[in-house]
Amino acid sequence: MTPNFAEIISSELNISNRSVIATIKLLDDGATIPFISRYRKEITGGLDEVAIHNIQLRYEGLKDLAHRKEYILETIEQQGKLSSELRNKIETTFDSVLLEDIYMPFKPKRRTRAETARNLGLEPLAKVIMSQSSISAVEHQAQRSLSNEIKNTDDAISGALDIIAEWVSESEKARHVIRTRYTRSAQISSSIINGKENEGANYLNYHNFSQPLRHCSSHRYLAMRRGEEEGFLKVSITIDDNDAIEQLNNIFVKRNSDNNIAQLVKQAVKDGYKRLLRPSIETEIASTAKIKADTDAINLFVDNVRQLLFAPPLGSKRILGIDPGFRTGCKVVCLDNQGNLMHNDVIYPCAPTNDFKGAARKISYLVEAYKIDAIALGNGTASRETERFLSSIHYPRNVQVYVVNENGASIYSASKVAREEFPDKDVTVRGAVSIGRRLLDPLAELVKIEPKSIGVGQYQHDVDQTRLKEALDFTVTSCVNSVGVNLNSASKELLSYVSGIGPQLAENIVKYRAENGDFESRKTLLNVPRMGEKTFKQCAGFLRIPGAINILDNTAVHPESYDLVSTIATDNNCTISQLVENKQLLHSIDLNKYVTDIVGLPTLNDIITELDKPGRDPRTSVSIMQFDETVKTIEDLRIGMKLNGIVNNITAFGVFVDIGIKESGLVHISQLSDKYISSPAEVVSLHQHVKVKVIDIDTTRRRISLSMKDINPND
């Protein structure tokens, strides 16, 4: 590690240097972020996952920057132009933009106009012009530059001005000035391409649009760039060229220079700005704006995915899953309390068949035969019709109907994972299984789907896919390890997200479990092929074994602390099980007695918390939403209606709410709260039950505008 990396990260992230150094060492040693944040609090000073992740990202960025510097130094040295002053300047620069500005004059070039002029021997003339001493000196040098290729002094001066134009474009000071102007005053504009007005109707808001770039929201920027990529819009980022050129003239034109020479320099400055500098900075600013827009969109998407993964599970229940449909019927599956498929069928309670009696008899039979505890109904096509049908049935057992968000179920049903699970079933059955399992345990099921296909957020297909994948992988890993994983029921997809495990080892664990039966203790994991001590240390604390002989195997207490817990129990004249059962005793223990150089109060407090509720699930419980029975389609809506709804997507400009019909309504950010908010996430969360009011209905475009202002949730 370069010595000042930790200092830079500490300063930028406002985290103590000691904590940063300790975190980087743990990361370099192969420790995972979940393991560090959970089990190495004393070493890091109690840093959470987000702080550790930020340290990791910046550390990797600085290492990449160091590699870039090595390449730049080597390139300049090969040119024989690396002075000690330049070397020091490069080595002490930690801003990647500034580094590239420094490198630009030395970067190997393609055949440019300036390079052609240099090869013709015109650089001395360019230097004379830039010295701005006298017009006679320029004319004299121009005469000396004549050759077979350069027939007259006008051609010589023209070539020299090409060199000066390149100098202008590569000047650190000039680039800084123009970059600053773009940052402060650039306008982003979009216009519809002639003849594309009808095809580009989805981008109507951007057919003639302009605003300061610094005020342009991420969703607007991404929408414009998508429209440009699809060939409907022309997008530009501009500043006042005249003001920019005047600023550059102030840099390059000497005040007392001969007017004729000044005009030559101004000509080169203008050319250098328009032909080279402006396009370069505009591209850079556009890239910076895209990165910012990507960051905002990714953060929003990640928050939505986290909320979706943390959706409350119903728990160990037998589920009847239904993927609703009209003409093709409703696909029905019966799942045991582990999510295993016991039976599949099809019913036709909706139009055009309308087999209410036959469908009701079949559902009642399945509920009784498979001892069903709950029904999971997908929220897609024919959902409301099927829900009304289900509510009319007199069940032989006490069952509750839950409407489940089925986004991504079709992605799962056609995936390799689904084919491996159900090789002899078609996609409709697999989709119904996914819906049922989402009620049982959303996290365990959704990890089987590529996160960006889950169907929440905005513009996830337009952002940097590498950054999106990294952020989503971190989020899914964080969620999985926060909840913990049942070692004896988890799929290989779920296990692969556990700290330190990965896909291959997850497959080995599942295979070992199939061949040897359920794991009875965490230690048995060491018998799994390729499970070494180092990996065991990283993963063991996040794996749970309900009903294990050692109660600690069903908690987040790490095996490295088992002896400590045993000592605490012995000191209190009881067993570990008795300690867990005696809450009063558990919370009366003086933890300071057990503090050592290695184990501090953070770890001890975590241990007591786990012993207080062993095997607890941090997620909330499932609740049911009752939609308005009088509203079945968009045509039933009336302005002013107050309805129950469920937030099913959050974007930067507002939230979409399921009100029990095919179309979700939009609550614009301006209609979310009576006070100013900068983000919808300040007032709502995914799957939150809300009360909304209909404020506009567009039946032609099937759009519904809703408001949450001035509404009493108890109405």
What would you say this structure looks like, in words?
The chain has five domains: 5-106, Arc Repressor Mutant, subunit A (Orthogonal Bundle), CATH 1.10.10.650; 154-301, Tex N-terminal region-like, CATH 1.10.3500.10; 319-440, Nucleotidyltransferase, domain 5; 510-612, DNA polymerase, domain 1 (Orthogonal Bundle); 634-707, OB fold (Dihydrolipoamide Acetyltransferase, E2P) (Beta Barrel). Helices cover 48% and strands 12% of the residues. The strands form four sheets. It has a five-stranded mixed β-sheet, with helices on both faces. Strand 11 (642-651) and strand 12 form a beta hairpin. Helix 11 packs parallel to helix 15 (259-309). The radius of gyration is 33 Å and the shape is globular. The two termini are 61 Å apart.
List keywords for this structure.
alpha/beta; 5 domains; 48% helix; five-stranded mixed beta barrel; globular; five-stranded mixed beta sheet; Nucleotidyltransferase, domain 5; 715 residues; 12% strand; Tex N-terminal region-like; Arc Repressor Mutant, subunit A
